[in-house]
C-alpha cells in the first residue's frame, strides 16, 4: 500500500489489517491516513490506491501517486531567483517599469534536454525594462554563460542606460554591436579554457522597453512580435541559411563569401542557424573542424584545399531595431522558435489577446500560449515572454472569434488522429 502526504511517497506491503498496513509509517501519518482514507490534494482531487499481492509468491507491482507533482505556484517559478519567486507569488502578474506587466514561461517539450532560458529584469534601468530569450544548441553551457554575461556587457556598453534615454540611434546601435561582440569573445575564450570539447552555441534576442520605445538586439531564430490594436507586427527576421526571403539570401551570400558552404540548409551540412553565440568550430576552430571532417570522411582534402576562408561562418553580429510604441501598442511577444515553427505570428497574437480579454493575467496568458504550442505538436523547447504595456483596458475589449476554417481544420485534425489511433490499435491487436 502507498500513501502520499505533502508530496511524500510511503509504501507498505503488509495487507492483513488496517493497523498492520501502516506499521512502517510515522504515527502522525497513520492517524491522518486512518482519518482520511482518501487525501484531497491538487485542486481538491481525492486520490485512492491499492496494491494486492494475490496468490503470487512475490509482490512485483507498485504504485506511485504524486498529487502535487506539477502546477503549484512555487514550482512554476523554480528556475527564477528567490526574490522573483516572492514577487511573483505576491503579484500573479508583475506590474513594474512604467506599469508594464510581465509574464514568462519556459517549457522543455518533448526534447531530451532543456536548452532554452529566459531572463527578465523589469527594473533594469530607471525607465527601461530588460528581457531576453536564449535558445541553445549542442548543450546548455553557452546559454548558462550568456544569461548573466550578455546583460552585463549591455549595461556597460549602454553606459548604465544613459544611451537609451538619448535619441542617438547610431550610438545605441554601436553599443549593442560592441556588447554582443565582447560577450561572444568572452564565451569563446571560456569554451576554450574548459579544456574539453564543447561545441555548444546559443541564439539571443534582447529587448529594452521604456519611454514608449522598444529597442531590440537580435541574433538567431527567436522572434519579437507586437500587437497594435489587435494587428500583429513581426519585428525581427530569423537568421537561417535557407529560404528565399531577403535576410536568408543575405545570410547565404555572407557565408559563401567567408569561404563556407551550405548543404540541405545547413552550414557545412551541420548547423541550421547562421548567427549565434559560441559555436567555436565555425569561428576560431574552423581548421580543426575541417580536419576532423576529413578524418570522418565527410569531405576530402582536395575539397578543403579549394576553400578561401575569409571570416566566421556563424557570427554573433546582431540586427538592431528601434520601434516607437504609441497608444495603440498593446503587448510585446518574444519567444523562441519552439513557438514560431508551429504557430504563425497572427495566430499567436490573437491567442494572447483573447487570453487577456478573458482574465487580464499576462502570466496565465504566457503559460496558456506555451501549452497551445505543445498541443500543436511542437517538438522543441518553448520559451515565451509577454509584456502587457498597460495601455489597454482588457475588460472592455471583445475576444476575437476563431475563424470557421480554423475550427473545421482543428476538427478534421482531431478526427484524423483518433482514426489513426484506432487503426494502429487494430493492427497491434490482430
From TrEMBL:
Keywords, comma-separated and alphabetical: Hydrolase, Magnesium, Manganese, Membrane, Metal-binding, Protein phosphatase, Transmembrane, Transmembrane helix
GO molecular function, one term: magnesium ion binding
Localisation per UniProt entry: Membrane
Zinc-finger as UniProt keyword: no
Enzyme Commission numbers on file: 3.1.3.16
Residue stretches making up the PPM-type phosphatase domain: 101-389
PROSITE patterns noted in UniProt: PPM_1 (PS01032), PPM_2 (PS51746)
Gene Ontology, cellular component aspect: chloroplast stroma; membrane; thylakoid
Obligatory cofactor(s): Mg(2+); Mn(2+)
Signal peptide coordinates: none
Pfam families the record matches: PP2C
Keyword hit for DNA repair: no
Single GO biological process annotation from the record: photosynthetic electron transport chain
Membrane topology: Single-pass membrane protein
Top-level taxonomic group: Eukaryota
CDD domains membership: PP2Cc (cd00143)
Database matches in PANTHER family: [PYRUVATE DEHYDROGENASE [ACETYL-TRANSFERRING]]-PHOSPHATASE 2, MITOCHONDRIAL (PTHR13832:SF589), PROTEIN PHOSPHATASE 2C (PTHR13832)
Family from the record: Belongs to the PP2C family.
Name this polypeptide is given: protein-serine/threonine phosphatase
UniProt source species: Amborella trichopoda
Amino acid at each position: 500500500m502507498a500513501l502520499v502526504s505533502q508530496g511524500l511517497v510511503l509504501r507498505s506491503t503488509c495487507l492483513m489489517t488496517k493497523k498492520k498496513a501502516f506499521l512502517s509509517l510515522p504515527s502522525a501519518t497513520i492517524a491522518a491516513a486512518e482519518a482520511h482514507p482518501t487525501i484531497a490534494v491538487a485542486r481538491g482531487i481525492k486520490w485512492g490506491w491499492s496494491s494486492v499481492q494475490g496468490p503470487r509468491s512475490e509482490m512485483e507491482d507498485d504504485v506511485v501517486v504524486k498529487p502535487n507533482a506539477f502546477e503549484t505556484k512555487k514550482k512554476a517559478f523554480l528556475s527564477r531567483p528567490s526574490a522573483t519567486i516572492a514577487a511573483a507569488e505576491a503579484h500573479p502578474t508583475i506590474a513594474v517599469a512604467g506599469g508594464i506587466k510581465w509574464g514568462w514561461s519556459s517549457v522543455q517539450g518533448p526534447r531530451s534536454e532543456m536548452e532554452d532560458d529566459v531572463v527578465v529584469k523589469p527594473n533594469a534601468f530607471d525607465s527601461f525594462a530588460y528581457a531576453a530569450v536564449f535558445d541553445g544548441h549542442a548543450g546548455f553551457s553557452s546559454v548558462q554563460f550568456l544569461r548573466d554575461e550578455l546583460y552585463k556587457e549591455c549595461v556597460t556598453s549602454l553606459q548604465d542606460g544613459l544611451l537609451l534615454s538619448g535619441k542617438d540611434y547610431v550610438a545605441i546601435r554601436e553599443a549593442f554591436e560592441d556588447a554582443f561582440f565582447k560577450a561572444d569573445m568572452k564565451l569563446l575564450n571560456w569554451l576554450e579554457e574548459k579544456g574539453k570539447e564543447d561545441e555548444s552555441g546559443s541564439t539571443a534576442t534582447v529587448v529594452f522597453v521604456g519611454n514608449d520605445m522598444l529597442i531590440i538586439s537580435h541574433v538567431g531564430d527567436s522572434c519579437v512580435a507586437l500587437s497594435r490594436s489587435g494587428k500583429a507586427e513581426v519585428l525581427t527576421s530569423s537568421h537561417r541559411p535557407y529560404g528565399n526571403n531577403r535576410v536568408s539570401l543575405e545570410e547565404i551570400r555572407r557565408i559563401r563569401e567567408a569561404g563556407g558552404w551550405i548543404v540541405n540548409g545547413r552550414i557545412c551540412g551541420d548547423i541550421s542557424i547562421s548567427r549565434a553565440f559560441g559555436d567555436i568550430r565555425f569561428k576560431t576552430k574552423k581548421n580543426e573542424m575541417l580536419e576532423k571532417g576529413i578524418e570522418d570522411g565527410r569531405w576530402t582534402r582536395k575539397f578543403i584545399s579549394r576553400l578561401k576562408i575569409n571570416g566566421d561562418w556563424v557570427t554573433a553580429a546582431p540586427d538592431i531595431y528601434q520601434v516607437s510604441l504609441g497608444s495603440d501598442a498593446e503587448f510585446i511577444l518574444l519567444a523562441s522558435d519552439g513557438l514560431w515553427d508551429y504557430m504563425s505570428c497572427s495566430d499567436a497574437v490573437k491567442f494572447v489577446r483573447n487570453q487577456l480579454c478573458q482574465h487580464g493575467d499576462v502570466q496565465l496568458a504566457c503559460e496558456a500560449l506555451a501549452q497551445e504550442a505543445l498541443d500543436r505538436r511542437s517538438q522543441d523547447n518553448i520559451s515565451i515572454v509577454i509584456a502587457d504595456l498597460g495601455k489597454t483596458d482588457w475588460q472592455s475589449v471583445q475576444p476575437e472569434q476563431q475563424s470557421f476554417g480554423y475550427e473545421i481544420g482543428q476538427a478534421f485534425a482531431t478526427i484524423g488522429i483518433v482514426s489513426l489511433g484506432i487503426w494502429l490499435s487494430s493492427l497491434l491487436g490482430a
